[in-house]
Amino acid sequence: MKYKLTLTLLLFSTATFAQDSIFARRMVDTLTSKYFWGRGYTNDGMGKAGKFIAAEFKSYGLKPMSGKDFMQPFSFNVNTFPGKMEVSINGIALKPGRDFIVGPESRGIKASGNLVQKDSVTFIDAENKIILTVKNKLTWSVSQEAADYTSIEVDKKAIKQLPATISVNIENKFISNFKANNICGVVKGSAKPDSVIMITAHYDHLGGMGSATYFPGANDNASGVSLLLSLAKYYAAHPQPYTIAFMCFAGEEAGILGSKYFTENPLIPLGNIKFLVNTDLAGTGEEGITVVNATVYPKQFELLKQINAQGNYLIKVSPRGKAANSDHYWFTEKGVPAFFFYTMGGIKAYHDVFDVSKTLPLNKYNSLFKLMTNFITALQQ
């Protein structure tokens, strides 16, 4: 493709179709609410979120990518924690998520025992197969496997003495073939419908750890889904020469599984995708954005930088090379040109219970929207 960057393009305005932070805040508030329970594996969190996004697509006027349904079902194994989540150290009860997290691969167990120190941060209850680690920061994740031991990480600020005794009551449930869905919609192109620009974001997060604690996932990735929905609403009202496709992937936190499944079972020919833009962690931006694959596609990256400079949107657009750190990766591996961008600066909450809507600034949301719409326009020149 040849790209033409003109003053007219750079002055392209979306003022007639306001996409402001009010919309973003409402979407992030919604997606991080207790109802969606961290968009994960218990309380049907991911299922509820997928249905919500599909309903949004339909209300905007998007069409399913294939058939009559916005859903692309797939499945994978996952270890979950739907019930008891109790840990006491030295007789003091700790708070799930804030004071401790359980290793995502852990087995469930109800036991009490003594801890033996192995090094400065590791303590073992060998009889009950419990490994306790003291950490400066707690960061949770998702496991596709279940181990024959239980690992627990404790925030060092939550304990005043070296751990000597432990009491746990943890319930896990390993689910084979957990059912998930990618959410897939399109706005058909007016001139070249077989040429596709794809916008993607993962909508899943970590879900719940026990029956009383969930991980809201405001920045990761309610922020990216909010931006995608804003773009979907805009392009539904303003069809482009190319088809604009929108993908919300499940299973990203479990190993970028939804995008892998789509690239192996595409609902549109991958060769028709002229460029893909993946957004994750889009809630800040004080220090600009980092663009993964910038060094792989230098012409498109230079175009993005020119548009940003002309519009004075973000303080910095930083390049990064290839990385398997989000849903763009499997498309790149299949030969689809793709960028993944994430915002820099601001809050540091990540994969923890503190990634909440009320502290997510969304202060560069409008700038990101304008940068993306101008970039997508330029890609069609």
Automatic annotation (TrEMBL):
EC number(s) reported in the record: 3.4.11.10, 3.4.11.6
Signal peptide (residue range): 1-18
Keywords assigned: Aminopeptidase, Hydrolase, Protease, Signal
Enzyme class of the recorded protein, top EC level: hydrolase
Domain Peptidase M28 span(s) in chain numbering: 182-374
Matches recorded under SUPFAM superfamilies: Zn-dependent exopeptidases (SSF53187)
Transmembrane segments: none
Pfam families in alphabetical order: Peptidase_M28
Domain of life of the source: Bacteria
Entry's Gene Ontology molecular function annotations: aminopeptidase activity
InterPro entries documented for this protein: M28_fam (IPR045175), Peptidase_M28 (IPR007484)
Protein name as it appears in the record: Aminopeptidase YwaD
Organism of provenance: Mucilaginibacter terrae
